[in-house]
Amino acid sequence: MANILVVEDEKIVAADIASTLQGLGYSVPGVVSSGEEAIRRANELHPDLVLMDIMLGGQMDGVQAARLMRQRFRIPVVFLTAYADGDSLNRARASEPFGYIVKPFNEKELRSTIEIALYKHEVEQQLMQRERWFSTTLRCVGDAVIATDPDGKVTFMNPIAEALIGWKAEHALGRPITEIFQVIDQETGQPAEHPVKAILQGRSATSSTHAALVDKERREISIDGRTAPIIDAKGILLGAVVVFRDITERKRNERRMMLADRLASVGAMAAGVAHEVNNPLTYLIGNLGFGIDELKFIRNEIARLGAPESSPRQNGLIGRLDATLEALTESREGAQRVQRVMQDLSTFSRAGDEVSKRVNLQEILEAALKVTANQFGARAQVSRAFHHVPPVDANPSKLGQVFVNLLVNAGQAVLKTGAPGEIRVSTYTDARSRAVVEISDTGPGIARDVVSRIFHPFYPGEAGAGRGMGLAICHEIVTRLGGEIKVESQVGKGSVFRVVLPASSSENGAAKSFPKSVPGLRKGRILVVDDEPIVGGSIRRTLVKEHEVVVVTSGREAMSLLEKGEAFDLILSDVMMPEMSGIELYNELLRIWPKCAERMIFLTGGAFTQGARKFLDSVPNSRLEKPFDPDRLREFVRERL
After folding, report:
1. 367-394 exposure pattern, b = at least 16 Cβ within 10 A, e = fewer
2. Has residue 93 got a pLDDT over 80?
3. 127-141, 184-198, 395-409, 489-503 — which is least confidently predicted?
4. What whole-number distance in Å separates Cα of residue 581 and Cα of residue 556?
């Protein structure tokens, strides 16, 4: 049974209406005669419907009272009036009535009008509940949602959208969506076609994997989203809705994964070719060094044994020797250049085998600045702004390699401008207590499309491109340390490279260390085990002047000598060999002659399996990486004798 409040200023008419309503089965909880009293009673009674005369006594007529009831209580109103003029109808229509009855009326007309009004109100309430349900749902979903009208003006925006674009809903409502939701293509940096605009024009919105929105603070946020038209049952376009989410972190992780995959590919390639390249490179560098030393000795002997006035023949021989020495020296420089390339490649094939310790960043930076001082010339002024940073756990030489590379790139960038510039090196501690090193330059800057790929292996976009691996190696080294390396650059305004490293987790950063060289030279007896005879021969030629050297080409031969009672001060053994590897030789020696196992030095050419890496990291024995030059080999052996 519906409760109906009657508002009529004529008592006889009001009583007749109340009686009629009761006769039709409705309840009449009250009859009032003024708009003010109608508002008060509606607040108290909460009727299902109000029958309201338009013309009422007092300061508030029926139209005004109906408008207030609609706003405050959402109560449906049906107007009663003896006047059906156009002005009354227009005023009544503005208050959103649910019916309009002209006096006099009959019971049938009254009943049908009331029932239609109650039904319309019920439908309206259901729609409002559904709207609240949808609104609450959209406000709680994890994606950002923005809806517009057919003109592209914002009609709804949930809190996630507010947070992403930096606009409050109350300020965004009614504004064009193109004003608050701006889209660019991250690849080009240019504005992209607005998806809502395309939808409202009847076209499909083009999706882009490089889309980013520009928020109120002009920051770029990578997004993934969908846009769809809002269409009613008749196919009329009511607006559009765009649903999107922040995928900045996902994009960052995808780039890391992509880089990791590329580095893994480079690492696999490096590991595959290292043994084949490093072995011949070892005897090439060793034999060139041996030949250069021998020719220098012969030249000096010829000069010393010749007549004081030096014969033309003697001078001719010395001249030919000098030319040969020059050619061999150039060849050795070329071989050493290949050696440096292989060392760079080996960075990607090693997984954490570099020794780390607790290091002071400022000391490493100062050393890197000294090494690169001659790279800058007079055009690049270097300034320092060192603030306190915590020590970090790192391999000093590897971390130094990072800073040397960044400083050289900064110097080359400044020189490109053709005008004096500045390189600034600064350190500070960030909010997460991490050490931060920034190296900035006033060079020409880096284009947006280059910045996104600058840490990729073999990408030649860096300053002084060279082999295109410098920054990729820097990225690999820093990432292995649990840190980050980033670049910020603007064309025409220079670049800033930022290295962020976690603070040291150890007190002392203990690491394997080699014994220091002892004064004087002790002649030793050395066994060389390498499956390539040329490598063994090269090592023998390098060491034979200072030590007794025995060369064998397999682990089995080495075991045979030791079983015969042969004694050696050091055993230099290749790791990867057929039949019996260096690892198997070590394990056999450890089982039979532990002291001999302690004297082993592993010669590594880079072709490591995961098991070989774990083994080398687990034993205290020294290792010497191929290729090595004669001076390095001789010093290495002296240190261990």
Report:
1. ebbeebeebbeeebebeeeeeebebbbb
2. no
3. 127-141
4. 10
Mean pLDDT of 338-344: 68
Q: Token match 């004064």: residue? A: 519
Nearest Cα neighbor of 602 from 511, 528, 536, 524 is 528
Answer whether residue 105 shows pLDDT above 80: yes
Determine the Cα–Cα distance for residues 633 and 290; give it in Å rounded to an integer.
Answer: 12
Is the Cα dihedral 22, 27, 31, 36 positive or negative? negative
d(CA 472, CA 263): 8
CA angle 404, 410, 411 (to 5 degrees): 90
Give the angle subtended at the CA of 49 by the CAs of 44 and 51, to the nearest 5°: 100
- What is the CB-side half-sphere exposure of residue 146 using CA atoms within 13 A? 33
Which structure tokens are listed for 263?
């580095």
Integer Cα distance of 469 and 376 in angstroms: 21
Strands (E), 210-280: 211-214, 220-231, 237-246
Are 498 and 486 spatial neighbours (Cβ–Cβ below 8 Å)? yes
- Tracing tokens 């930022």 back to the chain, one arrives at 498
- Do 92 and 100 meet the contact criterion of CB atoms below 8 Å apart? yes
Instruction: For residue 366, give the amino acid letter.
Output: E
Sign of CA dihedral 45, 49, 54, 60: positive
What confidence tens digit (pLDDT) does each residue in 268-327 have?
A: 666 667 667 777 888 888 888 888 888 888 888 877 776 555 567 667 777 888 888 888
Buried b (16+ CB within 10 A) or exposed e, 586-617: bebbeeeeeebbebbbbbbbbbbeeebbebbe
Q: Which of 196, 144, 148 is nearest to 173 (CA)?
A: 148
3 state SS of 395: coil
**Per-residue pLDDT at 578:** 85
- Band (pLDDT 50/70/90 cuts) for residue 390 is very high
Phi first, then psi: what are they for 409, rounded to 5°? -60, -40
Please report which residue ranges of 306-395 form alpha helices under DSSP H.
Answer: 312-349, 361-376
Contacts 24+ apart (CB under 8 A), 223-229: 223/164, 223/247, 225/143, 225/144, 225/195, 227/195, 227/196, 227/198, 227/199, 228/199, 229/199, 229/200
- Model confidence band, residue 573 (pLDDT cutoffs 50, 70, 90): very high
Helix (H, G, I), strand (E, B) or coil at 455: coil
Mean pLDDT for the chain overall = 81
The first and second tokens of residue 7, run together, are: 């508002």
Taking the C-alpha atoms of residue 4 and residue 16, their distance in angstroms, rounded to an integer, is 14
* Per-residue model confidence as pLDDT tens digits over 405-421: 898 888 888 888 778 88
The DSSP secondary-structure symbol of 477 reads: H
**Closest among 566, 585, 411, 440 to 498, alpha carbons compared:** 440
Phi and psi angles of residue 53, each rounded to the nearest 5 degrees, phi first:
-75, 135
Residue 22: helix, strand or coil by DSSP?
helix
Can you give the three-state secondary structure of 95-128, one letter per residue?
A: CCCCEEEECCCCHHHHHHHHHHHHHHHHHHHHHH
Residue with the two structure tokens 């809903």: 169
Planar angle of CA 318, 321, 324, nearest 5 degrees: 155
Span 470-518, pLDDT tens digits: 787 788 888 888 999 999 988 888 999 999 999 987 644 333 333 344 4
Which backbone phi and psi does 469 adopt, to 5 degrees?
Answer: -120, -10
**The residue to which tokens 């532990």 are assigned:** 594
User: Is the model's pTM score more than 0.70?
Assistant: no
Question: Within 13 Å, how many C-alpha atoms sit on residue 231's CB side?
Answer: 10
Rounded CA gap, 569 and 54, in Å? 118
3-state SS, residue 340: helix
